[in-house]
Amino acid sequence: MSAEPEILVIDDEPQILRALKTILTAQKFRVITAGRGQDGLALAAAHLPDLVILDLGLPDIDGFEVCARLREWTRVPIIVLSVRESEHDKVRALDQGADDYLVKPFGIEELLARIRVALRHSSQAHGDQDSPIKTGDLVIDLARHVVTRDGSEVKLTATEFKLLAYLVQNAGRVLTHQGILTKIWGFEYMDNVEYLRVFMSQLRKKLENDPKHPQYLISEPGIGYRFYLRE
Amino acid sequence: MLKRSRSVFPTVRRSFFAALVTLAVTMALTFFGEYLNVSTVALIYLLPVIFSSTLWGLGPGLVSGFLAFLAYNYFFLPPYHTFSVHHSQDVVALAVFFVVAVLISQLVGRAKKNLSTAMQREHELARLYEFSVKLEGVDDREGIAKTIASQTLGAFNAKQVEVQVKALAREKAFEVRLPLSGSTQEVKPIAIFPLQTAGRLMGEIRFWRDTGPLNSSEERVFQTFANQGALAIERAALSQERTRAKVLEESDRMKSALLSSVSHELRTPLATIKASVSSLLGGEVEWDTEARKDLMITVDEEIDELNRLVGNLLDMSRIEAGALSPNRQWNDLREIVDSAIYRTRHAIEDYQVEVDIPDDLPLVPVDFMQIERVFINLISNSVKYARSGSRIRFHASVRDSQTLFVQVMNQGPQVPPDHLESIFEKFHRITNAERVTGTGLGLSICKGIIEVHGGRIWGENLPDGFAFDFTLPLSQEGRFPVSIEIESI
Predict the structure, then answer these.
(1) Based on the domain organization, do A109 and A214 belong to the same domain?
(2) Domain final residue pick, A93, A125, A157
């Protein structure tokens, strides 16, 4: 992994492609671009990029479909770009396997931050699953069911641990409310977002330094939650 | 009532009664006849004639008159117990008696008939009057059709009435059926009246009843009902059309106001961006790092402003189209407020922001994005009017177990009381448009969003500033968040 990470950008607007290519190249990424969904899929198969940035509105096949087809064979992180601000589209893209989303127009800092998180997450996922995860003052040992904060153990209930484990295993990814509820509580609780709110606030009280301004357990308004790994 | 008694007592039966009465009078006279002279007897015989014709009409009156004539001749004119008459004087008396009896019968009978016709007419008029009064009160086609149906149902003792109204211009066709429990009738209606105006056929009334067909009077009233109803429907259709034209015109006017406002608002940030970027590109001036950064920050802020403007336009069009359906979920209001503050951090960095929201506030069933937009618009409005350095405060509390009360307070100028309502209307701005930027859409969008959530929004002058207040229901379809037990470790 000595080479610079390669990023595939699929977007039908030449201006965006040009701008992203310039900016990302300056940030020491290798960049390949595609203006159509089919071309994007072909490039992904040929180059095996480290990350895909995907626009939802494409001229041939739509972004949701590209997402789903990529997920058939690769776990490469996908960041979805969209001009649509509706939660529905974001949730759908995330359900199709996207890791993260950004609404156009976005600041480049924001995009770079998301790229770094996604790359870190994917290298983490490739690494040793059993070793404890360290982030800021937290150490989370999923194998041994132990969480410590500043060296002292944090007592979690069974559900709290299950929830935390699911988020941590998908660190960096945005997990939808429905996705989490189905995973932790079961299909019939899919719409009971209030469960999530209560348990998330419990977790924050136990894990965050300032539960009102969380560092790890981040809300994605109207969409879901994600766990942030801190340096 | 009159009609019914006529049908129960046919003429034959009534004539029989008339004969009985005459017979009774004859019997009474044979008892007391010897004390009375012949002319008195003749006078007394007029009584059953008057009585019968008053009570039962012309025919029975005549029957009674004829019988009285015979009996008077038979019992009281010599030679007794024969129908022959000896004295020529008696012949005259008998003839006069007969003529008087017939005349009385006729006169009384005619008066009675006139009276009954008059009463019937009065009854018809009363019905028509009631009908037209009822029609007066409604001005939409459905309402009128319902009125026609309910009035005919009541006035004609119907089993079922259907009023079918044809499509007209852009108004759809429809049908009203009364009683509501009625079903599609298999038998043919006993009457169908067209709802016809001078120009066109507006529909028809179908009518069923068990008590037999309509008589001529009822038919007349029914016809008038139908004519009046048709006119009312036509009038309503025309007025609905006019209203629609007016609404279109109004919305056209709004659109051009919006367009001119929007192009102005788009150009302002674009001008700034163009100026900043072109001066950076120009290369005529060597910009130092500080100045470059300043210019770039300006560009960044103006782009955010443009984006917010486009968002507001989209929201507005959704609200207008009634397509703003909130995706309600149980949300923590504090989180929404924090997110709105984060998104507007550049705009409010020169203000003192206070958040006063209790930790134990219940979850609210709202669309996160939409309520966040409300806060962003309220913040943006506060920043426009309140001087920098002043305080912007967010407050929320439970008002009455059903309602959440939220307040966004600033230290800006007060709003004249007569503008407190209208600030939430589109394009409304109290101050001179040149001084403050914005399309005047922000607050009307807030109103649209809050109302689609089932809440209410209003403005309030405070001793040291101004506050936007709004309410949100704490339950969703009568449901409150499930209370969740925290398991033990």
Answers:
(1) no
(2) A125
- Residues of A within 8 A of B489 (CB-CB) are 155-157
d(CA B147, CA B135): 7
**Angle (nearest 5°) at CA B228 between B226 and B230:** 65
Q: Is the confidence at residue B194, as pLDDT, over 50?
A: yes
Separation in Å, CA of B434 to nearest CA in chain A:
28
Residue range(s) defining the domain that contains residue A121: 6-125
Which residue did the predictor score with more confidence, B262 or A51?
A51
Tokens at A28, concatenated: 């020491």
For residues B330 and B470, which has the higher predicted lDDT (pLDDT)? B470
Whether the per-residue pLDDT at B4 is higher than 80: the answer is no
Are both A61 and A85 inside the same structural domain?
yes
Residue B85 phi, psi dihedral angles, 5° rounding? -125, 135
The pLDDT tens digits of the residues spanning B384-416 come to: 889 989 999 999 999 888 899 999 999 999 888
List the one residue out of B459, B348, B364, B352 whose CA is nearest residue B402.
B364
Q: How far apart are CA B338 and CA B162, in angstroms?
A: 59
A118 and A180 part of one domain = no
Residues A195 and A140 in one domain: yes
The alpha carbon of residue A184 is apart from the nearest alpha carbon of chain B, in Å, by 15
Same-domain status, A46 and A120 = yes
- Interchain CB contact of A124 with B (< 8 Å): no
pTM: 0.62
Assess B363–A contact: CB distance below 8 Å, yes or no: yes
- The answer to whether B357 contacts chain A (CB < 8 Å) is no
Looking at the structure, tell me whether residues A71 and A109 fall in a common domain.
yes
The string of pLDDT tens digits covering residues A61-76 is 988 999 999 999 999 9
CB contact at 8 A, B64 and B55? no
Q: Are A89 and A152 in a shared domain? A: no
Number of domains in chain A: 2
Whether A217 is covered by a domain: the verdict is yes
CB contact under 8 A, B486 and A198: yes
B1 touches chain A (CB under 8 A): no
